[in-house]
Design a protein that fits this description.
By secondary structure, the chain is an alpha/beta fold. It is built from 6 helices and 8 strands.
Length: 246
Amino acid sequence: MKEWIQDIGTKDGAMETFICHPERGGPYPPILFLMDAPGIREELYEMVRRLATVGYYVMLPNLYYRAGKDTKYGPDVLEKGSAEQARMRAVRTKMTIPPVMDDVAAMIAFADSQPASKKGPVGTHGYCMSGPYSLAAAARYPDRIAAAASFYGTWLVSENVESPHLTLAKAKGELYISCAEHDELAPPDMVKELKALFDKSGNSGELEIQMGVHHGFAFPERWCYDKPAAERHWERLIALYRRRLG
């Protein structure tokens, strides 16, 4: 495998991005791997590597780059009341969809300029806070994003003008939305409403509820890691990309 960290230029600065793709063959379809709220860490790098091994040009950006270089957090970032969680939330709570869509455009443009990245359809998937970003990208760039997935995305239905549910009918690509049965950030009533809106949108994709698991189930180092559900997440994701990207 080939991997490196690249600063990708955006409207707002240099976005540090971990990139990985197979050593031989290519070019490979590009995929945007969008981080969860705790941010960039080795756990995510390992997930990028796993996806790249099956034949993709995978990019993992540090979406917190606008707050500076010191935006990678310690292992206690998930502990309520910890200094690292407070530091992360000071950045996280200022995040909005429009600037991230500019970041998506910058990554697509960068991928188009790279010999190892195949020109054409792009895939994107996001976890937690980035589930909405992935869906929004499919709506903002319908002629490029051929596949978009959200795993335990947060607040997918809200009164916000940027609410992800408003983008469902605008996407041309196939969508896959995976929700955890136990998730305070996407409670059952919200998921039920989202499912009705998803069905109404006519998208060819799927909204699936993973039963018996909690928000964060796909992360190997999280307390709630559930191996069967995590492997199902890989199965669904790779199948989606195979169908839409090749």
